[in-house]
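Good morning N.,

You mentioned wanting to compare the apo and holo forms, so I went ahead and generated the holo version with MV4. This is what I fed in:
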Amino acid sequence: MFDKLLVANRGEIALRVIRTARELEIPTVAVYADGDRAGVWVREADEAYALPGTSAAETYLDQAKLLAILERSGATAVHPGYGFLSENASFARAVEEAGKVFVGPPASAIEVMGDKISARVAAQAAGVAGVPGTTTPTTDPAEIVAFGDEHGWPVAIKAAFGGGGRGMRVVERPADAEAALESAQRESQAAFGRPECYLERYLVWPRHVEVQVFADAHGNALSLGERDCSCQRRHQKLVEESPAPGLSDEVRRAMGQAAVDVALACGYRGAGTVEFLYQDGEFYFLEMNTRLQVEHPVTEEVLGLDLVALQLAVAAGEPLPVRAEDLAPRGHAIECRLNAEDPAKGRFLPSPGTITRFDRADGPGVRTDAGYEAGDTVSQFFDNLVAKLVVWGPTREAARRRMLRALRETRIEGISTTIPAQVAILSHPDFAAVRHSTRWVEENLDLSEVSSPRTPAEATGSAPPAGSTSEGRQLREVEAEVDGRRYQVRLWVPATDPDPPVPRATGSRGADARPTARSAGGRPAPRAADGGGGTGDAAVTVPMQGTIVKVLVSPGDEVEVGQTVCVLEAMKMENAITAERAGIVKEVRVAPGDTVGGGDVVAVID
Ligand code: MV4
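and this is what came out, ligand included:
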């Protein structure tokens, strides 16, 4: 097929590609940034080359370095994985111009789908409707008002060159149009270097359903079924599943056909994902991702197919080795993205660091795709994804329970992970009954009691016995046997460590997650906002490092609980920093352009 394959990526996806290549007896070439020298994918590849540097821009995004390694290694094809250069048309073109094969779609298809306005136009031309919206860039807030009055409020402002929700703003009423457009354009410019935005009617309670498509160079295109990725937080997916639950056969079939029509209309080849919003029995084209997605394993588990093998086959010019009538979907698969983030209080703060323990879940129907092992360090420079936990079960309910079992079996120490949040999601009755939507995790799931200590010892004093303080005490988990029965006991003992770790929050592992969102009919009722009593902190702090892009209050202003004090740009997203208590602004310590670190005080409220 190919004499040698360059895998231009890192972590779990690099290893995922290398595994299939090995099964196909294709020699592989890995690449690594300075901090990745000991990466598991580097060891598993047949050859590995350094990408000198630490940041993504200096390494996995550096086209010149990758093209030089392509030449030097003698590889004849490049698999870009996801992220990095996977949807970069100029890289795809440069690879082809070097006489090598880009394992992905033609550069022209990447270009059409990379511009969300032209993607909408292409889908429309294929007879596939998007959400009612505009097909020219919006520059005037008056257009938003006119659009909302015609199609209904709220209105979504979206970045034409965005994706993943960056640059998206929801405008509830005409008075908010101007500020929202300005903010969307600013975020879009910062993240993508282009300010163009367009409009859509905003759907209030949709599910995110996407269709996996495959096309070959011989005019065949095929749907490999759908995935539901509605459980996400700030556009970071947490749980994905296939098939999408609760769709009628008619909708499922029509959505698959629509996705195939979109792929054929843009001259697609390879693996692609067509995203839809699904609400009230209707589906609407959203965008097309021209790469293999993180969540592809749920499709693999349900169909018993290797999507990387299919990618390599069609990239080599072979006809698709499967036909629609041969597909035999079986059971249900769920994936959890285990990220190095602390979900405590629903904040999901990045938690880079060294993994000191990593016990994988095992047993029937369980698959872990990880890019790290115990001893490896999750760097602040790259994605927080540590591993993907994937389960298969004969039914959705069996898969849901199996995932809970596998989450509890997985033990990761040294970093905090999203596992407790995923336990909360999977064990919630709304998720079990498919009452969730793309807004459910953020608006209905109560993560206030969730915690994810980096190590069990770090739970020190986290729940000290009544009447004691955490000071000078340490939690010890010990086993005891009383009358022939084993007990696991927690003891708060005098600290031997002269500098005991700072208590973080209550609870210890995933099982402590206590979701409490209530359900009311089809749509769960939002939970009460935190700090509603206005007893929050006087000091307004930022949760993470970033740049202040806007300050909305001045000393002497009166503020309410939840009012935006300033806007922080972090990880290329704008975050509203809000007041946790009502009062008068006593001090404002930042100005636009200032760089701040996690925990820094930006204002004080009296
Ligand atoms: C929407 C929407 C509601 N109405 N468009 C966010 C990411 C980007 N791919 C599109 N997104 C959305 N577009 C309209 N007209 C709601 C979302 C959305 C969303 C979509 C998919 C998965 C998670 C989401 C979370 C919040 C909002």
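Confidence is low (pLDDT under 50) at residues 460-469, 498-522, 528-533.

Happy to go through it together on a call whenever suits you.

Best,
F.
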